[in-house]
Specification:
It contains seven helices and eight strands; from the N terminus they run H-E-H-E-E-E-H-H-H-H-E-H-E-E-E. By secondary structure, it is α+β, with helices and mostly antiparallel strands.
Length: 238
């Protein structure tokens, strides 16, 4: 009986340690991607079912992050700025997100030509980021969908007169202020990422919104960053 008791205690301690490791982060990035720059800078893009999605920001991921990079416990002489792949045995189980597939395909689809199956994308995001979130699979994907529904980035830009265009350029501060309106006007709660078009023009690519580990509450970003944007940027069509 003593052996069984000690074995059970060891299993419990290991489970608690794993749970603590999975929630050992400071905030989430909810990352949303504008599809035009993806198609422009990747090897084109492909549409699931050959049907072009709506011109709207799509979820790239909900990523746990550290407020400051730290030594990597598993790899000496290496630092980590976020946790990833926290549980190799916890793979995506579609039965656990049953009922969300339609919303996920609409809001968290894939444009990759390598795999037109969005479930491959979801599986990767869950394995790399979701397993470190401290949430179950249903709660993780539901949190991302609910956050996107609250943050109408496309509508906020259009309301500010920032419309997709091959020709127009927009002041970065104006774009940031417009996107901030979707978060309640709190610019420190977000970061913008730009990339370069095929014509070497700077264009809005992704928006990072900072979220509390509870997966619901917007927070100020602890790591303000300028991700490749210049004073004037394009908002390309899709």
């Amino acid at each position: 009986m003593a052996l069984n008791h000690h074995s059970s205690l060891a299993v419990l301690l290991l489970a608690l340690a794993a749970a603590c490791a999975a929630t050992d982060f400071d905030f989430f990035y909810l990352v949303q991607q504008w599809p035009g720059p993806y198609c422009d800078t990747e090897a084109g893009c492909c549409f699931p079912g050959d049907e072009k999605p709506a011109a709207d920001f799509g979820i790239h991921g909900l990523w746990p992050n550290y407020a400051a990079c730290r030594p990597d416990a598993a790899t000496p002489n290496r630092t980590s700025c976020w946790p990833d792949f926290c549980n190799a045995t916890d793979t995506l189980n579609l039965s656990l997100i049953k009922g969300m597939e339609a919303d996920l395909r609409r809001s968290w689809g894939t444009l990759s030509c390598k795999s037109k199956d969005a479930t491959d994308f979801w599986s990767h995001e869950w394995s790399r980021h979701g397993t470190c979130s401290g949430m179950g699979q249903h709660a993780y994907f539901r949190s991302a969908l609910d956050l996107k529904a609250r943050l109408d980035l496309t509508g906020a830009l259009l309301d500010a007169g920032i419309v997709p265009s091959d020709e127009a350029e927009y002041c970065l501060d104006r774009v940031r202020a417009a996107v901030a309106a979707a978060t309640g006007g709190a610019a420190p709660m977000l970061e913008l990422e730009c990339n370069r078009s095929a014509r070497n023009e700077t264009q809005l690519y992704q928006v990072y919104v900072c979220v509390d580990p509870d997966g619901r509450t917007l927070v100020h970003c602890p790591l303000p960053a300028q991700r490749g944007c210049t004073d004037m940027i394009k908002f390309p069509p899709f």
